[in-house]
Amino acid sequence: EVQLVESGGGLVQPGGSLRLSCAASGFGFSSATMTWVRQAPGKGLEWVSLINSDGRITDYAASVKGRFTISKDEAKNTLYLQMNSLKPEDTAVYYCVQGRTRGRGTQVTVSS
Questions:
Q1: H/E stretch holding 98
Q2: Pair 80, 71: CB distance under 8 Å
Q3: Predicted pLDDT of residue 40
């Protein structure tokens, strides 16, 4: 069974940083393309970033490019999202996704 458990969210001031983690199990993490998506209050899901199986290819939504960095640690079966220079519009529940499976998410709130 594929399981994805996000953590690392919280309340941060504008300009601050957070690192989200996603602990993965139940599938071949080292051979999987992984994705982060988010859902802001009252809005639909928004794709944020992806990383391919060997970590050599990454891509980002225009809204986060230059501020967020996706990475994966195959030894720990963990996906990360380093978020810097956070803005209020980054406030959302962040989910990691593999195939058709999405975790329960972690809340990120950017507010002064």
A1: strand 92-98
A2: yes
A3: 97
